[in-house]
Amino acid sequence: MSERRTPTPRDPQQRRRNLKVLALLGSILITMTVLVSYSETLYRLFCAATGYNGTTQRVAADNAKVSSRLVTVRFSTTVAPGLPWHFVPAQREVTLHLGQDTLAFFDATNLSGADTVGHATFNVTPTKIGLYFKKIQCFCFTEEKLGAHQSAEMPVDFFVDPQLATDPDTADVDTITLSYTFFASKQPDGATDLARFATKPNAVDGEKIFASRCAGCHALDKTTVGPPLGGVFGRKAAAAPNYPYSAALKHAGIVWDAAALDKWLAGAQQDVPGALMPVSIGDERTRADIIAYLQSESAPQHATASR
Q1: What distance in Å separates the CA atoms of residue 128 and residue 55, rounded to the nearest whole number?
Q2: Is the separation of the CB atoms in 127 and 169 below 8 Å?
Q3: Alpha carbon separation from 8 to 5, 11, 98 (Å, rounded)
């Protein structure tokens, strides 16, 4: 005859310990699940906060004091397989002062017969300066739609923080490369349309471009390397006093208006063979914004200043 065993009562303390272990394991599992689910987002936030791996910073405005220190920013672009776009910088590089609000432009064309949406990734090199490269406006902030066979010119508004010069790790940097790669978007719904950039020439943008592209040789109110440009609209070419113009420009018979300035900026030595100005600006929108700025500065107080 077998003996029935009486169940041993469980130790309440042991049961509580077991529940704590189970709760801890559950918490660890939930945490790992969340980290895996949001790892890409968390990584982006970490990079954005620290500048890690050349990630640039996003700011609302340029409130930095402009420094006398110069730095050159070069531009590099690629398009990943699967996105039928042509994507290039409108300028190879710009030279600017630390703290100077600067505009650069990038041209994109949809080579396909259907609307497509792209997303741009970006970084700067040397990667150690990511914390000091600050963007105010950039197409890389959003998913971007480009219509079939359409083209768009996209601005990037940025500055390089003057603190770059005071950081021992970055004080030696005088050349930066800003790189973009466009990919086919994984989240095309709600993409912004690049057609929004098809706006009229903008004098405010033109002032920023003038500061980075033209101010090395020109000022509005005085002769530097080149003649003064204040009040240039409506003036005859080669009319600024005491400036050694080329004979070709003196005899060209040009009166500066928007069309004449556009031809000159597109290629002065092609426009007027024998002209001395070696610089040209190939991008049409960039020229238009510079011209809009010069036109806005052609006020009565600049009437004696001309090209």
Answers
A1: 9
A2: no
A3: 9, 9, 78
pLDDT of 184 above 50: yes
Closest CA to 160 of 93, 237, 101: 101
Q: Which of 123, 101, 125, 138 is nearest to 175 (CA)?
A: 125
Query: Looking at residue 42, what is its pLDDT?
Result: 43
Q: Counting Cβ atoms within 10 Å, is residue 60 exposed (0-12), middle (13-18) or buried (19+)?
A: exposed
| Sequence-ordered list of residues with C-beta below 8 angstroms from that of 173, at least 6 positions apart, any chain | 71, 126, 128, 129, 164
| pLDDT tens profile 246-291 | 999 999 999 999 999 999 999 999 999 999 998 899 888 899 999 9
Q: What is the enclosing helix (H) or strand (E) of 264?
A: helix 258-266
Burial of 14 (0-12, 13-18, 19+ CB in 10 A): exposed
Q: What distances in angstroms separate CA 45 from CA 105, 172, 204, one per listed residue?
A: 26, 27, 32
pLDDT average, residue stretch 104-121: 96
Residues in CB range of 186: below 8 A, 6 or more apart:
119
Predicted local distance difference test score (pLDDT) of residue 197:
84
Look at residue 5 and tell me whether its pLDDT is greater than 50. Answer: yes
- Whats the size of the chain, residue-wise? 307
In percent, the amount of the chain with pLDDT more than 90 equals 68
Task: Map residue 89 onto helix, strand or coil.
Answer: strand
Say which residues have a Cβ less than 8 Å from residue 89's Cβ, sequence separation at least 6. Answer: 75, 76, 77, 104, 105, 106, 107
Encoded amino acid at 303, one letter: A
- Judge contact between 134 and 48, C-beta under 8 A: no
Distance (Å, whole) CA 130 – CA 82: 28
Rounded to an integer, what distance in angstroms lies between the CA atom of residue 221 and that of residue 224? 10
DSSP 117: E
Contact 268, 294 (CB under 8 A): no
